[in-house]
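Working notes for the structural subgroup meeting. M.R. asked for a predicted model of this chain before we commit to crystallization trials. I am recording the input and output together here so anyone reviewing the notebook later can reproduce the run.

Input as submitted:
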Amino acid sequence: MANTRRSGAFFISLLCVSDLVSGQIRYSIPEELEHGAFVGNIAENLRLNVWELPSRKFRLVSDDRKQYMEVNVENGILFVNERIDREQICRQSSTCSLSFQIALDNPLEMHRAAVEILDINDNAPSFSNREFSLEIRELIAPGARFPLESAHDPDVGTNTVSNYQISPNDHFGLKVQTRSDGSKSAELLLEKPLDREQQSAFQLVLTAIDGGSPRRSGTARIIITVLDSNDNAPVFDHEIYRASVPENGPKGALVIKINAADLDEGTNAELSYSFTRHVSQRIRDLFKLDPVTGEISIQGVLDFEETSVYELDVQAVDKAPPGMAAHAKVMVGLIDVNDNVPEVEVTSVSSTIPEDAQSGTVIAVISVTDLDSGENGHVQCQIPVDIPFKLQKSLRNNYKLVTSDILDREAAPVYNISISAWDGGSPPLSTRKNILVSVSDINDNAPRFTQSLYNVYLMENNNPGASIFGVIALDSDLDQNGEVIYSIVESQMQEGHGSAYVTINSKNGNIYALRSFDYEQLKHFQIKVQAQDAGSPPLSSTAIVNVIILDQNDNAPVIVSPLTWNRTASVEIEPQSVYPAYLVSKVIATDADSGQNARLSYQMLAATDPTLFTVGLLSGEIRATRSFRDQDIITERLVLCVKDNGQPSLSSTATIFFSILSNVTEKSSERSDEPRHSGYFSDLNRYLIIILGSTSFLFLVTIIFLVVLKYKQNRNIAEDYSSTVCCYRQKNSNDAYNQRPASNEPYNSTGLGQTEGYRYTVCLSPESSKSDFLFLKPCHPTLPFSDVNVRNSHAMT
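Returned structure, recorded in C-alpha cell form:
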C-alpha cells in the first residue's frame, strides 16, 4: 500500500520534474525511491544527440561521497543510483536538493543540474525518553503548569508534529502551544488538587501526532510522584573539607565536591549549596559553588604570593518551606608554581638625545625583578639588534641603555625600543616594555629647492604687486633649523638689479612683480633666489628663476610710409604713366608687438572712386585698376585701415590724398573745346580751378608790370637769357654789376663795388618753352614783389 502511494507521488512529481532556470536543470523527486527510478532525460533537456553521448564521454560529476544519481550514457536518462533518505542528507532543512554537473568532451561543456528531494511522511514522532518522571508537591494549587518534553519528528512541513494528547485522568489536563518557529510544545496542567495520602503516584501516556497523510504518532509515559512535607534537616559528610590546587589552576577546574543528605523524600530532600555570609566577596570572585551538585570550582586567578590558604564556609539548605540548613568548612591550599612574569622598571636618564650624541651616551637605567625564586627568578634581558642602542649590564638584574652608533634624526626621529625579559622557569615567562627615545635636531641639512631652475612665463602689462610665481625649498630639520628664509641674491638682466623688477616674500617664497613689464622693452631676465635656514650656523642653497615675458597685443600698427601728418598723407601721380596694376604707392606699417600680434593686413575703408585703386591685403601696395581718364577728378581721397592679427585686434587708419598732375598749358585749349559733363566735377574742384586761374592771372599782370618798369630804368640786357633772367634791386644809383656768370645759372653775387646790394633770382617757368608768353617766377617767393628791380629783360619773338 505504501509502495503504491509512493509510486503515485513519483509520477505526479514527474509532471514538472525539469526546468531550466538561470542555466541550471532542476528535477524534483520524492525521497525513498528505489534504485533505477527515473528522474529525467538530461540529453533531451540539454538538446543533445543521443548517438554522440558515448563519444563525447557524457558523464555526471558530483562532490558527494555517495553517488545518489547516475546517468545512462546510452540514452541520457538520469536515474536514482542509491536510496535517498532526505532526513539523513538535509536534516530538517525546509529545502533539500542534490547538486551535480553534467560534463561532455570534444568540445568541453559543463552544465549544472540539481535534484530537489521532496519529503514524505516516513517518520513517526518520537520522544527522547519513553518514560520520564515528574514530582509535584501535594499542596500545590490547581492551575499550575509543568512543561513536558517535546517530541521530535525528522520530517518537515506538515509531516512534522502538529498536536499532543494525554491519556484520560481526573487530575491533569494538557495545554498545547505554538512557538515562534512553528513547532508545538505541551504543558501538563493541574486541574484538581492532589492528595498524597489518597494517591502518591500517577502514570499518564503522552501522545504526539504529526500532520502527514496517513498520520503517524509516538508516545511516552509520564510518571508523576506526589511529594510529602519537610520534617528532616540536611547533614554534611564532613565538618571540614580539605583540598589543594595549583595557583595557576584554570578557570572551571574542580577543587572539591561537598555532599549533604536529607532523610525526607521528594522535594524535601532536594538541597541547595551556597557560601555563608562569612565568606568575603573577594573569595566569592575566586571560587564558585554549584548550588545543585555541591562542586567547588575555580573562577578567578589564584595567587600563591598573595594568599596560600583560603577558608570557605558553606551551607546546604533544602527546598522545603521553611528551609532547613546544615554548615561545614572547606580549607583550600595553593601549590606554588612559576606564575609570575619578570617585571621591568625603567628609570629614564634622558628621553631626548641630540642626533650628534657620542657613542656610549646613557639613555636609561633598567631594573628587572621576578617574584619567583630559583631558576624561576633568574631573568635575562635583551633589545633588538637593528637599532643604534645596546644594553650594558651593571649589577645583577640591572642594565644601562646606551647609544652604540651614529644617530640621524631625519632618518629616524623616534625610537620605540622594546626591552624583552624572560625567566628560567619551565615553561619560561617573559615580559616586554617599550622605551620611547626622541632624537633632537641639529642644523645639518641645508634647504633644498624642488628645482634648481624654474621657468616662469609672465604676460606683459601685468599688475604691479601681483604674485607671478612661488618657489619652494624644503629643509628636513626642525624648528628654526628648518625655518626657511627666501631672498634674491643676484640677477642677470638687461638693466638694473633684480630688486628693481621683483621682490620675494621671505616667509613663503612668493615672487611679486614691482612693475608692469613691457615685452617691447624687456623680454627676459634671470634672478637667483637663495633659501637660508635660521640655524646656527645657517645653511643655504640657491635656485635660478628665468622670467620670460610673453607678448600681448597692446600696440596698434603705426604707418611709417608714406609720411603722414594728422593721419593724412599726400601723393602726386602723373596720369600718363598710370596703367592697370600700376604701383601707385605702398603703405608700410610697423607693429611693436611680435608673432601673430604683429602680423598686419591692409584694407581700404573708403575712396572717392572705389573703382580706381586696389589695396594689397598683406603687402599694402596701392595699385591702379585702370588708366586715368580726362573726366577723373584731380584729387582722389583714399581711407586705409591697417589691422594686426592679435586678440583682440588693434588697427590704425590713414587718409591719403592722391593729386593727379596735369599740363594746363598743353591741354587747356584742347580741354576748353571738349564738352564736359557737370557730373565729372565736384564743388571743390570748381573752387580750386577758380582760385588757380585768378592767382595765375594776377601773377602774370604783376610780372609784365615789373618788366616794363625795369626796361625803362635800365637798358642793359643780359647776354644769356636762355634759361634765367636775374633781377636786382639797387639800394642807390651808384650800384654796379659784378662779372656776369658765364653759364646759364642764376647770378648770385652779394656785393657790387663799395655799395652793398641785394640780388634776387627770377626763373623762367617751364611753360615758357611751350607758349608764346614768358612766364617768370621768383626763386625766393618769400620776398615781397615791391623789392624787385628788373635789370634785364628778354624779348621773345
